[in-house]
Specification:
Blueprint (H helix, E strand, L loop, with lengths): L1 E6 L2 E6 L9 E10 L2 H7 L10 E2 L3 E9 L11 E4 L2 E2 L13 E2 L11 E5 L3 E3 L6 H5 L2 H14 L7 E4 L5 H13 L2 E6 L2 H9 L5 E3 L4 H7 L4 E6 L6 H7 E9 L12 H7 L2 E4 L5 H13 L6 E6 L3 H9 L6 E5 L2
Parallel strand pairs: 11-12, 11-14, 12-13, 14-15, 15-16, 17-18
Antiparallel strand pairs: 1-2, 1-4, 3-5, 3-9, 3-18, 5-6, 6-10, 7-8
Helix pairs in contact: 3-4, 3-9, 6-7
Bound molecules: NADP nicotinamide-adenine-dinucleotide phosphate.
Length: 329
């Protein structure tokens, strides 16, 4: 079968043996898979413990075509989405010490088939196509935990989501809106801001200019800020947080902040909270929330699997607006 692997610092579509389902596993014939920034970090050599000849990819949707010994017959022929958690464990507060994300070092979804334990699959929400469902798992789970577990988002609250071109940011936007929050966004690209305002964003700010001052001048302040960029702008986010507000961050794309305004943080009782992916329980809740509100992930483009490298290049340059999906049908 074909699989996209990292081979000596480069991505390559390789021909490898099709996996055989082991005891308790289901074999999924993938129909659509999606990229996350994690895959691009791995490609760029900026991810810890990279193991060459590993199949990348955390997101996928497909049909169960075979069962390992002891796997439930209920899964056969079902169309499923894949939970990218490996060994989260039972603690809702924190992942276990053996936690991994599917797609490094465990063989991931960017392939024609994947064989995984049966408790890693959930039935695809009926309102979604395979392509849309493939876009959900990693970004959806990360956004869900950041908003609802750490952010404790309530209806009517004001939310700011930074870098709205990002996959996780856009999922966070959809779910915060569905919860009844008033959501504003930032982006480095004015056309993305325009699109988001068409989709109901309250305000949009271009982070490449003095956006935080503009927001403050407009009287903006937020109950919850969802961020994945970190870097020097963190103090602007602290300034824009309401008293008792929360900043939940799940990435640090622009690196570490040179300093943190602790004075303002303690006076305003602002919480700065890190977040990573989400528990298995949250994965099931996230899929149910998506189905209940009939939410549809934003898709930038769907390419044939053979054009995977073009999709990676588009992500590298932040050109995408929505998830980058690869089709295997
Ligand atoms: N901890 C976890 O479990 C977890 C899970 C998922 C992702 N992450 C991390 O979170 C980050 C985003 O992941 P993703 O998959 O959503 O990435 P993505 O789809 O590639 O999106 C990245 C976005 O970051 C925005 N950005 C870049 N520079 C920025 C800046 N200076 N200020 C504000 N926004 C900026 C851009 O938004 P615009 O195009 O709008 O400018 C870009 O589209 C990555 O660092 C990733 O590794 C962590």
């Amino acid at each position: 079968m074909k699989a996209l692997q990292i081979v000596e610092n480069k991505l390559a579509i390789c021909e490898i043996p099709q996996p055989q389902p082991q005891a308790g596993e289901v074999l999924v014939k993938l129909s659509a898979v999606a990229l996350n920034h994690r895959d691009q970090w791995i490609r760029a050599g900026k991810y810890p413990n990279i193991v060459f000849n590993t199949t990348l990819g955390s997101d996928g949707c497909g049909q169960v075509t075979a069962l390992g010994k002891g796997a439930s017959k209920k899964w056969l022929n079902k169309t499923v989405v894949i939970n990218p958690n490996v060994n989260w464990g039972d603690d809702q507060r924190i992942q276990s010490s053996s936690y991994q994300v599917l797609g490094m070092p465990t063989a991931g979804t960017l392939a024609e088939y994947i064989s995984i334990p049966q408790d890693r699959v959930v039935e695809k929400p009926k309102h979604l196509t395979d392509t849309e469902a493939a876009a959900l798992p990693l970004a959806g789970l990360t956004a869900y935990r950041a908003l609802f577990h750490h952010g404790e988002l309530q209806k009517g609250q004001k939310v700011l989501i930074t870098g709205i071109g990002g996959g996780v940011s856009q999922m966070a936007f959809l779910w915060a809106q569905a919860k009844g929050a008033q959501v504003s966004v930032t982006s480095g690209q004015p056309e993305k801001l325009e699109k988001m305002q068409e989709l109901g964003a309250f305000l949009g700010f271009n982070y490449k200019v003095e956006w935080a001052r503009e927001a403050a001048q407009q009287g903006e302040s937020y109950d919850l800020i969802i961020d994945s960029t970190g870097g020097p702008q963190l103090n602007s986010l602290i300034k824009l947080a309401r008293p008792a507000g929360r900043i939940v961050f799940y990435g640090a794309t622009t690196g570490l902040p040179p300093k943190i305004d602790l004075y303002r943080m303690f006076w305003n009782q602002v919480t700065l909270q890190g977040s990573t992916m989400g528990s298995d329980k949250e994965f099931v809740e996230m899929i149910a929330f998506t189905a209940k509100h009939k939410l549809v992930p934003m898709i930038d483009s769907v390419r044939p699997f053979s054009e995977a490298l073009d999709a990676f290049n588009r992500m590298e340059q932040s050109q995408q607006f929505g998830k980058l999906v690869l089709s295997l049908t």
